[in-house]
Amino acid sequence: MKNKNSILNIFKRSNMTAIGMVLIIMFIIACIGSPYFLDVYNIQSLLRDLAIIGMIGIAQSLLLLVGELDLSVGKIATLCGILSGMLMIYTKINPWVALICGLIFGIFFGLLNGLIITKLRLNSMVATIGMQGVYGGINLVLTKGKAITGIPEQIQFLGKGSLGIVPMPFIFCIIVLVLVLFLVKKTKTGRYIYAIGNSREAATILGIKVDQIRVFIYVVVGLISSLAGLLYVCRLGSAQSTLGESWPMNSIAASVIGGVSLNGGIGNPAGALIGAAIISIISNMIVLFGVNAYWQQAVSGIVVVLAISFSSIMEIVRERRSRS
């Protein structure tokens, strides 16, 4: 009985522990279910997919910590990739300069989102749905639905290459995670983020510049989204207008699965990477087990619902126990 209570206490204290155990169980199931899962090529492919979902998930978790979200992250990534690709191909700008320009575009789009939401006092979900349409429309106007091909090989290693056996995109993902964790755990801005998520009104009373912090987060999200988009362009060797369609949903799913509360103020960006790993393994298992690929979106949706339900159930249980 004592051991049982200690296990329950671990789960209560840390959602990360529970989610980490789920990830390990899924990894074991995938290893047993398919002999190809541990193949080096498959693991590298899995890590590349995980890196993109993970980066977007980490970015989205920052917004969820203040009780907001951004549904335009996929279109920002796409537009930055297209603009950077056009600079490389059509204007013959140095590819490295074009990549830096792509990151700057991401910062600008994130800033635009943040200013629109804070200055006009708009709901983040509604506003970013609208901006998703704006960025998507610009994508189609620029490309007319056609891919921009001929991305220089000298930068393609950023998406295709590896450092040893570790894919380059995954290395970038870890760097992003470390920087974001430093931001939220070791700086005043990080403490302000949690304070705003717990109570925006109380944070304002305490003198925290709430709107400035919110705009800053949107800028960071835009930057990370553009980085993910550019790495994917380097991986494909082309910039496509259909890139990132499922990224908003997957990023929210990864964050929620990783224990970040939709109400703000609770969670850890590292959990978003664990959630992204779970989603990536599910997607990989769908392919390896020969399941129709069109089920992937349905499975992702089911995972989101289950994750949200699990989080809500745990909160209800905690409330009842605290009352008793």
Description:
- Keywords: Cell membrane, Membrane, Transmembrane, Transmembrane helix.
- GO terms for molecular function: transmembrane transporter activity.
- InterPro entries: ABC_transp_permease.
- By secondary structure, the chain is mainly α.
- The chain has a single domain, classed as ABC transporter involved in vitamin B12 uptake, BtuC (Orthogonal Bundle), CATH 1.10.3470.
- The chain is built from 14 helices and 4 strands.
- It has helices spanning 2-13, 15-33, 40-65, 73-89, 95-119, 124-143, 153-160, 168-186, 188-198, 200-205, 210-236, 247-257, 269-288, 295-323; strands at residues 148-149, 162-163, 166-167, 238-239.
- Strands 1-4 form a two-stranded antiparallel ribbon. A two-stranded antiparallel sheet has the order 2-3.
- Strand 2 and strand 3 form a beta hairpin.
- Helix 3 (40-65) packs parallel to helix 8, helix 4 runs parallel beside helix 6 (124-143) and helix 4 packs across helix 11 (210-236).
- Residues 1-13 have low confidence and may be disordered.
